[in-house]
Amino acid sequence: MPFKLLRTRRAAAQCHLSLLLLNLVPGLLLLPLLSRSAAAQKVVTHLPGFDGPLPFYLETGYVGVEEQTGTELFYYFVESERSPATDPVVLWLTGGPRCSVFSGLAFEVGPVKFVLEPYIGGVGLPKLVHNPLSWTKMSSILFLDSPVGSGFSYARDPKGYDVGDYSSSLQVQRFLNKWFTDHPQYLSNPFYLGGDSYAGMVIPLIAQNISEGIEKRQQPLINLKGYLVGNPKTDPKFDNNFKIQSAHGFGIISDQIYEAARKNCKEDYVNPENQMCAEVLHTINSLISEIADAHILYKKCVVAVPKPLEDDSGRKFLLEESIQLNQPPGRPTVDCFTYGYYLAYFWMNNNLTRDALGIKEGTIGEWIRCNRGLPYTYEMPSSIPYHLNLTRRGYRALVYSGDHDLEVPLLGTQAWIRSLNFSIVDDWRAWHLDGQAAGFTITYANNLTFATVKGGGHTASEYQPEECFAMARRWLDLEPL
């Protein structure tokens, strides 16, 4: 397409973006573009639903990353509960893209978790307790709502929400430069990037941006040591193609269906080139839809169904706050894996919580755990070149996979790692916790470690917190798994 035509179409699309966002995205507030401070911080000592003062240091705040659109990224910083002066600092991102990093803080690696007990929206608030398996026991973690539109990160100009892999990664780099400038006491600490799912796609790109800044001696000089990614999106050639083989291995599709797929699709399950291939893939997708592909052993549960909640008498009721709620999630049963997400919706959409976290009034209406209604450009075809470049430069890398995930199956992750053609330093073996195999691991040249987490799903630390805690502590402390 000629550049002039492409530019014209893009301009026309941006003209309609404001209207589309207002119509499609619940909770999005389009604000006048004002001159505001680039950074705002708050030390949080108490949280609604948490009994007593927080037993850890929590700071929240905003950092401006794009003046033209008034884009500000929201963060939660939890200082290490062990030795904050020397422990690593980890930037944690959540996937989606545009799932709130609160998922990482409250469900995966952070210091609080919800009490999973029956709750009726509008009656009090869900309860929180301290998580004894928080990764903040051995590192400081900077949880970041990125890209803009995730969680409480916002833009004052609606055009600011139109981002993609490259632009959002550059915004993360700007965020880090400003954050470390405001927090120079952490510059000497070892620094790592961490995250899972789609965050695993952009983390190597962000790490390379930081690495190039270090080579140019750009200030502040971040002490980048490496990155860790769980069940990471990497390249559809591997991530998607190996779903079929994995579904067969898990017993979701039969030998006959698997052989039909291999024969008719020529082992390319991403772009079917004939009718027979398309038909067998349709059959396979129908079978996979019967299970929870994030963890094949778990129940399929409600995640977020836009319907009004009702109390036991069948009458609709309103929540006890002024925030307008458009999409209250369907209520899963307490034993469902998604029940914590249901609790988070009500906790985050309460004014007591907003006040405690220091959320700027008028920036975000309804908080949604994963915001699917904003534009995003998937412009990076593969992150493998960035993995290759970073590890060759000497940066440490831990790639881990929950072994019951069918969204990004470990077979595909193993395959792209093998494609790097690194020599093996420590061959495939079990790694242990309390005398039992917690997974299996292999270490390659160039400081690259791959590990499986036995019984883990797509976000491994949600499903197997003890195993992931042990794995992360050993790796961050430079110990073998």
TrEMBL record:
It holds the Pfam family Peptidase_S10. GO terms for molecular function: acyltransferase activity, transferring groups other than amino-acyl groups; serine-type carboxypeptidase activity. It comes from the Eukaryota. InterPro entries: AB_hydrolase_fold, Peptidase_S10. Residues 1-40 form the signal peptide. Keywords: Glycoprotein, Signal. SUPFAM superfamilies: alpha/beta-Hydrolases. GO terms for biological process: proteolysis; secondary metabolic process. Belongs to the peptidase S10 family. This is Uncharacterized protein. It comes from Brachypodium distachyon.
